[in-house]
Specification:
Helices cover 78% and strands 0% of the residues. It is mainly α.
């Protein structure tokens, strides 16, 4: 049965990869794969009740990510519908594509440490869609945003789900992970950015057109922009203070945005105000991408419940017999299988008596699983979100961006080892 489960997962992955030649939306392939994996698991199980309980447990975790994604995408749509991003784009004075790429990469890197890589990827990709008119340019920029956001998330306890897991589990402390990983993470982001910037050397974009908004529309745009970004920054603070999952903070943020928008547009007639409403923003959110994410996470959770990921982690441990080689392998695997269950399996395999808090192994694991997923667009939540926003083809990303992510991955690891040899 385990072989059948793996075969179904691989076939589903192929369906996603060849979405365009098959002319089948990736969400369909992902949903079928997710449901079939759980069907195989429950049919071979002696206790259907325990499998149902496991499914509901995983569904809770998956739903928390989906509601977070839904909330963040809706807030971004609200900012966009009020032309809030125009306030930022009007400040962009450079017409050099290379310079703009480096600015966007730097913003994505540092912003993801404050927010998280998923929210940052959504915000920055939406911003780039306002600045860049050519589809090909937007795809390259989106690819760099994925790399930068994931690298930026690796060095912050709030930047990536796996780093947060290690922080909550006591494997790392906040100050130490920031100190030890900022340089390797920066290298993993900067080197690919410089390569792409070199590709864009001498190329320009059209200067941003002057905004034609009325003073009242500009005022409303500013209110929504600052409220939206402020609430997104509030989410990790809310999580830290209350210890509630991040999606709770995101839903609170969305509710408060709803109140602000209602107040702003209460004097307008219903037909005019309708295009600014949260209901309209929810209609514009890319629902197929959310269903795609649901299918992928269901499939991965089936592999996890079946014990295949734990077996895989054990196999790597017995075969490679080197902690850092294991870390590299898990990082590369996170491009295919979600990094969350891989890190969870590692936490189960190695307790704090083997590797105490702030041991280099935990820091290395945070780096590799945080940056390795960028090699494949569906390897991270940030990649999935960007794929939905810009409709990026799986194979295009693999050919054009995947190797850049791997270069960053190798450079980040090299800087980590160099740093260890110099300062311990």
């Amino acid at each position: 049965m385990s072989i059948l489960l793996i075969v179904i997962f691989i076939l589903g992955y192929i369906g996603i990869a060849f979405e365009h030649p098959l002319k089948l939306n990736k969400a369909a392939s992902a949903l079928i794969t997710g449901v079939l994996c759980w069907t195989i698991y429950i049919l071979q199980s002696e206790s259907t009740h325990s499998v149902s309980e496991e499914l509901l447990h995983h569904l809770g975790e998956i739903a928390s990510i989906l509601f977070f994604l839904l909330g963040a995408m809706t807030i971004v749509e609200l900012i966009d519908s009020h032309d809030g991003f125009d306030i930022i784009t009007q400040k962009v004075k450079t017409t050099s594509k290379a310079k703009l790429l480096l600015i966007i990469t730097a913003l994505a890197f540092f912003l993801s440490a404050l927010l998280d890589n998923l929210t940052t990827a959504i915000v920055m990709t939406s911003l780039c869609s306002k600045i860049l008119s050519a589809k090909e340019d937007r795809l390259w920029f989106a690819g760099m945003i994925v790399i930068a956001a994931n690298a930026g998330g690796a060095w912050s306890p709030l930047g990536d789900v796996t780093t947060t897991m290690l922080w909550i589990g006591g494997q790392i402390t906040a100050l130490n992970i920031m100190k030890q990983l900022i340089l390797p993470s920066l290298a993993a982001s900067v080197i690919p950015a410089l390569i792409v910037a070199y590709r864009f050397r001498g190329k320009t974009i059209a200067a941003m057109p002057v905004s034609v908004c009325t003073p009242m529309e500009k005022k409303n745009g500013k209110i929504i922009l600052f409220a939206g970004v402020g609430f997104l920054l509030f989410v990790p603070v809310f999580k830290t203070v209350t210890h509630l999952p991040p999606f709770m903070g995101m839903l609170l943020a969305l509710g408060l945005m709803w109140v602000i928008i209602t107040i702003i547009h209460k004097t307008k007639d219903e037909e005019e105000a309708e295009r600014f409403t949260v209901a309209r923003a929810l209609q514009k959110v890319d629902t197929p991408s959310i269903l795609f994410f649901l299918g992928i996470l269901l499939a991965v959770s089936a592999l996890q419940s079946f014990g295949l990921l734990k077996e895989l982690a054990g196999f790597l441990s017995n075969t490679l017999k080197d902690d850092y080689l294991i870390g590299i392998a898990l990082g590369l695997l996170s491009a295919i299988v979600d990094n969350v269950p891989l890190v969870a399996a590692s936490q189960g395999m190695y307790d704090l008596s083997t590797y105490p808090t702030d041991h280099p192994f935990w820091e290395f694991l945070a780096l590799t699983t945080g940056t390795g997923g960028s090699a494949v667009i569906i390897g991270t939540a940030a990649g999935v979100a960007v794929m939905g926003i810009e409709q990026i083809d799986f194979m295009w990303y693999l050919k054009k961006i995947g190797w850049l992510a791997l270069v960053g991955f190798v450079v980040g690891i090299s800087v980590f080892f160099l740093q260890m040899s110099l300062v311990g």
